[in-house]
Amino acid sequence: MATKTLPSADQHSVETAAALRRDQRNQVVGLLSPGLIWLLLFFVAPLLIIVVYSFLVRGQFGGVSWLPTIGNYVDLFTSPVYLNAYWRSILVSVLTTVLTILLAYPMALFIAQRSPRWKLVLLFLVLLPFWTNFLVRTYAWMIILNDNGVLNTILRSIGLPGQSILYTETATLLGLVYGELPFMVLPIYTSLDRFDFRLMEGAADLGANRWQAFRRVMLPMTMPGVIAGSVLVFIPTVGQFVVSELLGGAKVDYIGNLLQRLFLRSNPPNWPLGSAMAVVMMLILTLVIVLYFRGTTEDDR
Amino acid sequence: MKMLRWVGVLLAALTVLAGCGGAGTSGGGTLYVYTWSDYTDPEVVQQFESENNVKVVLDTFDTNEDMIAKVRVGNSGYDLVVPSDYAVEIMIQEGLLATLDQAQLPNIKNILPENLGLYFDESNTYSVPYLYGLTGIAYNKTAFPTPPDSWAALFDIDQLQPFAGKVSMLDDEREAPASVLRFLGESVNETDPAVLQQVQDVLIAQKPLLTAYNSNDVQRKLIGGEYVIAQAYNGMAIQAILGLEDEFPGDPNIGWVMPKEGGVIWQDNLAIVKDSPNAALAHKFIDFTMRPDVAAKNAIYVNYLTPNAEAVKQLPQEVQDLYAQGLAPDAAMYERLERVRFTEASSAFTDVWTAVKGE
What was the ipTM of the complex prediction? Predict the structure, then answer.
């Protein structure tokens, strides 16, 4: 009898353990499902629609006709107009990223070396522009860069020739660097804040000059911040269209302008071509993210 | 990584907010109007509300295509929409509009015959005219003591050269090519590839001299002297000449012409959505906007042309003068005006525009 009860007790405990695990599993599923449903509904589903649309034909009055084609992708990769828009977007994004790094690193370094109270004030100042809508701030740049604007008034008053900057690609670049700068300062600052500055003394003791200490010690250790900042700056810049429309005078197409026009302004709108363009852009950005994850470890991030 | 996650959360939140637009579905004493921004005088809306003891909700769209897309899905909740001419045609073809009960629209007698029975709705079964406009050349009278009378002022590089950097064109894939087409002696709806290639060449040649492509605030730039010549809607010029409420004073030094080669005339219309929850009230509103006093008030606010013959008589003298000076069409001008039509071949204009912008 006793020998029989034992396995049954065992079985019982096995069952309880299984039930417990089941409970835990249900709990996890329960906790995850709102997020999962959210992702499926608002991320995966729209994404699938875009991918499907990109293989269809434009409808007569906009929308799509359900005829499968790869024509949109063929157009994208064979027409120099579209390829140029991609190149232009990537080029301006790379330039924006590099320029923001050059500006943000010294800024972040300066902030990281202040006393805690000053740090707070300075970080607050970095974030301050976000309190005003980006569009309004871009309009402010129009007033500054205008031919009779603030900048030229100052230049002329000190006897320098006025500059025609507004409505050029330089103005676009300037607007982008301005807008993205905080997104670069913050991650770099985070890295620098955790950086132990005594290591610089250590490097000096070992015979490194300041540049070498920076190159060999500080920069590699804060690289994760630079990379995170680059991702944050690069991705939105590739898709931007407002800055080039307002500050660039809508004269040149970046991929964002092209996308916006194909969806909203063209007649009939070309959703399939726009979708294909978006898919290609997503693939390029995914590539960037993958490179980012390969280049850093979990700890760095 | 934390940063990235926050950005993700933010984006997700924005997505939700963006999805929350759209009108409600309740009927009763509320009229839902889907219109262009700044296209109805708020005082006119208030007057309608208090005269009829109802509520009017205005939602705005930026392009006909946006509006059609929303109505097409069905159950948009809107009663009244304001489609441009070609958009009326599309919406009728797709069965998105309700037929109008003419008996409820007695004020249609005030509308000019030129604005009725147009190609997109030949017996005004679905739509009545709201406002209309022209696309021509706005200029600064100091820079042009003799007004330009030809599109050559914008498209002949030698003529335009002295004004380089103070020139703008509408940022619109149909309007910009349309003017070039008239300049070349062609119809604004010409889609022959050889002709469109010429149009593209003209626009690309012109581009280095442009300050910007701008469809938004040409009037402001004209007043500020940033542009001295611009392809512009007549309403922009009227606003520049008369000023805009408390935003900027008028500048009598601005002029506007419809060049001798001719150009585009367009018309926005009022129409009732097929599944309108409150069609009776929508009829009332349409008839109300055709009342001479209301139409005049609205036209002064919006600055585009009212098709209401009785309303024109009630406009301030200075506006009537502008109309008489050629900012509104007369019989002679109508001879050289043309309406933009949309067909399957129209996508060629998208390609022209992409090529110009890609340069």
Answer: 0.80
